[in-house]
Amino acid sequence: MSGAADGAVTLMTAMDENPAGLLPEVFLAASAVLGLLAGAWLPRHRQWLVGAGATAACGAGIVAAAVAGDGPRTVFGGAFAVDPVTCTARVVVLSGTLLVLLLSFVPFRSHPRESELYVLIQLTALGALMLAGAQDLLLLAAAYLLTSVPSYTLAGFRKDERGTEAALKFYVTGALLGVVMLAGITLLYAAGGASSYPRLAAALPDAPSALVAAGVVALSAGVLFKAGGVPAHFWVPDAVQGSAPPVAALLTTVPKVGALAALWRLTAVPLAGADGPWHTLMAVVAAASMTLGNLAAFFQTDVLRLLAYSTVSQVGYLLLPLAASGRGGQAQSALLYYLAAYALTNLGAFAVVCALPRARLLAEYRGLWRARPWLVLWLVVCLLGLVGTPPTAVFLGKLEVFTTAVDGGAGWLAVLAAVNTVASLFYYLRWVRAACSGTEPCAAARAVVGPAAVVACAAAGASVVLGVAASLVLPLSGGPLAR
Amino acid sequence: MLTALVFLPAVAAGILLCLPRTTPPLLVRAVWVAVSSVEVALVLAVWAGHGSGGGMTHETRAVWIPSAGIGYHVGVDGLSLPLLALTAVLFWACAVHALRMTRRVRLLAALFLFLETTCLGLFAALDLILFFVFFDLSLVAMYFVIAGWGHRPGAPRAAVKFFLYTFTGSLALLLGFIGLYLAAEPHTFDMVALARGEVTAGRPLYGALVLLAVGAGLAIKTPTVPFHTWLPPAHTEAPAVGSAILAGVLLKMGTYGFLRIAMPLLPDRWREFALVFVVVGVVSVLYGALVALAQRDFKRMIAYTSVNHMGYVLLALGAAAGSAGTADGAARLAVSGAVFQMVSHGLLTGALFLLAGVLYERGRTYDMTAYSGLAARAPVFAALTGVAVFGSLGLPGLSGFVAEFQVLAGSLGPRPLATVLAVLGLLLTAALLLGALRRVFLGPLRLPVAPGTGRPFPDVRRHEIAAVVPLLVLAVALGLFPRVVLDAIEPFSRTLLGLVGR
């Protein structure tokens, strides 16, 4: 009886190859391909149409993701899961991409390769979406490549010295860790005899634990590279500093969302039953990320480098639910909520950087208060938001992940995270202090990019609204995963 | 009504921020004073509506984030009411004190009104996360007050130190709250629900860790030795109105937290570790007094006497746990004295810091050795400072005496040695405050010689009198007729001791 039911389920999933299940991804891919084609024909001053198309695709994708719902199911032979994790990741990734596109319009207006930029941004986002939904190790590897290759190009998009160096470093690290990840997948395949998550979940508990552990460590190296967590974080500061600010905003936000969703899915589905030091590994990585990221951020003078290290430390907090995921639903909604809050707040901070293209160093923000008080207000809201000051969304995210950590028996990690939060206040305050001090209006404020300032305002406002109105969002993301 | 009381200043702050830059400062100051006055009136109305019984009134409960166990829950009882009133009065005094200010007054007014919301909200909050939200936002607002309007060039440094220290405290507090939340079944952050029974009963180590986190967080805020080092620089560098609020209201958040959270929510652990708090209290009393004795800077001296005065509160709370179960009134006396001390200290220290601002504005320095014989040149200023100082050292007839007498009388039974040591602190404070008074106001006239201070030392102006005198009048009134406030406090003390002693 049960065998027959299983057979029927397998048959049904095997039959489900309806592209409607992947509507947001399809929109993005179609718009990217169309953009590439159109970009070859459009005159330079009309290339913004490609960007407009990308924006429309993101908007349509958000709507499609919201309409599709999060009923746990898998499509395409069980390779891709549509469940609360995918749904949240879709909304967050697409909204983040939308904001990045809005940030890119002005600086790349009539750039010789304008349309290519939009296409690459969309492909990166598409890769992040695939990472979040992959329910199969091979699809995970494909998604890794899909999100990595366009990002290498994006990092070196300006073709200047810094950008080239950043792209090269990024590429070498990515290629190395990609291979390590493939090796991990091979080991897991050898251990479990399958690449799809549900089958691995059934097979891994009986597999040789050393093999599983080695495979898991190697696999997580690749995913952590996309997340920008220690020890795979070396590319982050250089790539962020070397690329254009909108691209930096994309690289530190969108792939991270996909990677952390993928890590969560790995934790919750194939590795749920496998005994092994998975949670300990995540705890160590979390502790190392937040501590090293913070320590490195302390005395940075370049705002982009400062933000880059701050994103490394944020990965540490984001990994807390993975380090202590004793209680599925709550840890999951904590992670997803924090991801959304982080993406929004981080993009807000980057938007302020984009709004002031002439200010690169902290010292160049001196006197901003005199010239652009509202911009300073958005900056303060975003930076204090990243610290976790209530009532911004990251505060509630932190509260939730701390609670999960204490509840899951990793109280020491919560204490470490709290200590790190205090430490992080120091370098965010250096920036706030620079922006609020000075008696002369700041020179860099003479050229403010209007749309970026609007994005900063919207992100700052939304991060407060998301924090205050969390009751509307928080319960949405705790549902069961697809198996 | 309570919600309106709490959020009205923030709304006013938002409106002030949206006004164009060309708004005349006069209008801004008028709005500031008007809103502060309305707040005082609203607090009085809330107090009138509270009645004479104990328990919570004006409770409002609203669903906020139910899936995280967080709700919007505010209410007032005999502990919150005096502090709400103190907050409203002090903010009003600051608004009046700043009436002659011209430099960036719109922003300062907006910040102060926002700060008022956070302080009032904190004293009305009955949900741990709501408490925490206001706690953290008060730090943010105060950081900007110190950094933006402090005395350069040390202000930004002091502001960062203040923020980092107290933020550490707030995160410790947050961890403690998470501990309480997880221990409660069902999980909740609601203080009233958490106070129904010791949630960590049966897990002494867990409870002790939670108390450690909460206690450390509140001790940093209070501040007690050894967590007080942020206080002197913050006070010295802050503008006069900022110092008045910092000492008068923000320090009370720490002791308020002990009374509202640590004692009723963790009664067993509180009794178990009461001795720790007694020791910390006495050390703060003595250390604060001794260090204050060595100060030449007027503001630093008052800052250290704050450490000393907050030490009495902690001593009383620790001592009260020892005799909470017994029928005699000693514990009740101690707790009521502690609350009374908070109010009295707020009024007197607030007045002293505003007067310190007067001193600085005329002499451009807080160094007491630079002044001498001011009583001849500025008799009203001397008289006002004298009243505040005598109140602060506990002269009978002023509020400080009522508070300290109750604290010491209530603590003597359960903790005789500690109380005797604390009396020594009282003597030291008296000596140092009188010494300071003599040095600055008596003797031959001498004024600081510094660039731009060649002008004579004019006496206090009308708006300064209008700000300081009501505080001192209240201090005298509370000293003569303490029943007005004690009638509200005592039912709370009974309830609290019922919770601690069960």
TrEMBL record, chain B:
<dbReference type="GO" id="GO:0003954">
    <property type="term" value="F:NADH dehydrogenase activity"/>
</dbReference>
<dbReference type="GO" id="GO:0042773">
    <property type="term" value="P:ATP synthesis coupled electron transport"/>
</dbReference>
<dbReference type="GO" id="GO:0008137">
    <property type="term" value="F:NADH dehydrogenase (ubiquinone) activity"/>
</dbReference>
<keyword id="KW-0472">Membrane</keyword>
<dbReference type="GO" id="GO:0012505">
    <property type="term" value="C:endomembrane system"/>
</dbReference>
<keyword id="KW-1133">Transmembrane helix</keyword>
<feature type="domain" description="NADH:quinone oxidoreductase/Mrp antiporter transmembrane">
    <location>
        <begin position="125"/>
        <end position="428"/>
    </location>
</feature>
<protein>
    <submittedName>
        <fullName>NADH-quinone oxidoreductase subunit M</fullName>
        <ecNumber>1.6.5.-</ecNumber>
    </submittedName>
</protein>
<keyword id="KW-0812">Transmembrane</keyword>
<dbReference type="GO" id="GO:0016020">
    <property type="term" value="C:membrane"/>
</dbReference>
<keyword id="KW-0560">Oxidoreductase</keyword>
<dbReference type="InterPro" id="IPR001750">
    <property type="entry name" value="ND/Mrp_TM"/>
</dbReference>
<comment type="similarity">
    <text>Belongs to the complex I subunit 4 family.</text>
</comment>
<dbReference type="Pfam" id="PF00361">
    <property type="entry name" value="Proton_antipo_M"/>
</dbReference>
<dbReference type="GO" id="GO:0015990">
    <property type="term" value="P:electron transport coupled proton transport"/>
</dbReference>
<dbReference type="InterPro" id="IPR010227">
    <property type="entry name" value="NADH_Q_OxRdtase_chainM/4"/>
</dbReference>
<dbReference type="GO" id="GO:0048039">
    <property type="term" value="F:ubiquinone binding"/>
</dbReference>
<dbReference type="InterPro" id="IPR003918">
    <property type="entry name" value="NADH_UbQ_OxRdtase"/>
</dbReference>
